[in-house]
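not sure who needs this but someone in the group chat was asking about DUF2992 family protein from Bacillus benzoevorans so here u go. i didnt clean anything up, its just raw.
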Amino acid sequence: MKLTIYYDGQFYVGIVETVDGNTLRAYRNIFGPEPNDQDVLEFIYSDLLSLIERNKQKGLIADQDIQKKINPKRLQRIVSKEIKQAGVSTKAQEAIKEQYDLRKKEKVMKNKQLRDKQKQDKREKKILKAKNKHRGK
């Protein structure tokens, strides 16, 4: 499990990455304007497990890299490149995006069903009203 905290321009955001076997799952938490150490520790001790349990999601397949001896100069280049990076892995961003798209599709389907039901109810009321008019009531 890995927690990465970064500043997105407005708020500090924490990305939690978990790897189970070969499945990568990522979760996002917004800390606010400027969290202190106490806020982060409170999140880790109390809110982290509930966040993971609440957001059961399908993960991405993580690549298992085979570690072999790396040239020290190459290692130094890799480390400096990672330090310059924004901090969130692309796989984590991909997992969050997939979860967001899934929730969006569910919401669109739910809203469509609600609209169809409202149209059907309105049509039934209109038909009933027309029948009552013809009966002379």
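also Residues 2-63+70-134 form one domain. if thats useful
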